[in-house]
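User: Some background: our group keeps a shared notebook of sequences we're curious about, and every so often someone picks one and asks for a predicted structure to add to the entry. Today it's my turn. The entry only has the sequence so far, pasted here. Could you supply the structure so I can complete it?
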Amino acid sequence: MSDKKETEIHSTQKFFFFNRDYISEFVYGGIDGAITTFAVVAGATGAGLATNVVIILGFANLIADGFSMSVGNYFSSKAEKDNYKKHKALEYWEIEHLKEKEVQEIREIYEKKGFKGELLEQVVNVITSDKDVWVDTMMKEELEMVEDEKTPVSSATMTFFSFLLIGFIPILAYVFKDLFHIVEQDLFLYSSILTGVGLGIVGCMKSVVTGKSKIIGVLETLLLGGLAAVLSYVVGNIIEKALM
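Assistant: Of course. Here's the predicted structure to add to the notebook entry:
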């Protein structure tokens, strides 16, 4: 991996208009928003439903699924934070009541890292001389737990925002068809193109998080969205024929 790419991955600077730390939430919400809304549009189109029905179903999906997804993100993030705090409190208790055992654990951790003799004892003494440093070391080295600095509310908000923003793209053509004089037969085509562009943008952003090629990121999201649309269209078409 090049130094430039590594720097980009670890950078905490802003990406466009928001902090890079929240790109994963934006990508997560954006992909789900675009795919589920486009799936609704594809299914409704396959079933031959009227334009106004497509719009109603699209907005219902945006609000209901977007809110549900953000709530799930909130409780997931909160559970992780609560779990971290619980284990951290336990480590403080163990340092107070099982000091020698915890000192030995620090010694074993750094012994495995290659520290020996006097240098090992110096490292152990430095770490165990500060309870906060000691606990942080145990959390990272023993439990492999690192606290997420993002709050559950901010993560959930970003997820909901991206779900609405990107999820609105598939129904743009339907909402503004009169303004741009789009004939009804072309609505699904425009929706497909716009959704492809939206997924492409999100896929490109995904590469910032994963460090993968932007082309791969775009192709992955387009493939996923395409499969969801095809399935929804086919199911809608089958159900429409079965009920006729």
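Suggested note for the entry: Confidence is low (pLDDT under 50) at residues 1-12. The beta strands are 14-15, 18-19.
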